[in-house]
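Hi C.,

You asked whether I'd gotten around to modeling the 198-residue construct. I have! Everything is below, sequence then structure, no commentary in between.
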Amino acid sequence: MDVEQREHVVSGFAFYSEKDAGLAEQERQKIAYLDKRIDHADMQSVFAIYKKALEDRVFRTPVGLEYLRELQGELRAREEELGEEVPPIPLWTSFANARTKTSPARRRIQPMPEDGGKKAGLCLSVIMNIVMIVAIIAMFVITLNSDQPNILNYERNLQNKYASWEQELTRREQTVREKERELHIENTGNTETEVSQN
């Protein structure tokens, strides 16, 4: 045990931080206060204090939880007198995901050598750059092939639009000329000269 952990010991538990040790010390003082005032012969009052401590989450550190465990043991031994079941002590933390600084598994894992980390970082950087270049090329291809005018294809789109207008105009003129031929209508210029001669 290192020097820092020895400084954070309360009731036989070595705490990771000074803050946790302070909380455990407060709980130790609460326990001392309660022990002076609890009448252990009156199981109903012990049971009421136990339930109130669970509901209010008075104890959160192992120091307080150990005290609750002792009370629970006393209550379960005389459960028949109480007339109801002693509730379990809820643990308000997940132990599956808990990792500590002094975990044996962490001590076995060797840190990656400096040059290995640089190689991995360089490799990752190259891969990310290639992905970005492919994405940019894809965006340009999509933009060039788009029907919507944009900064890359606006000239081509305008030329296409004017060409389609010109074709439409030519088609309409041709349709009008065909109708004139069908109706035997002569040029409007000739019609005016005929009208003036009459």
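If it helps when you're writing up: The radius of gyration is 45 Å.

Thanks,
B.
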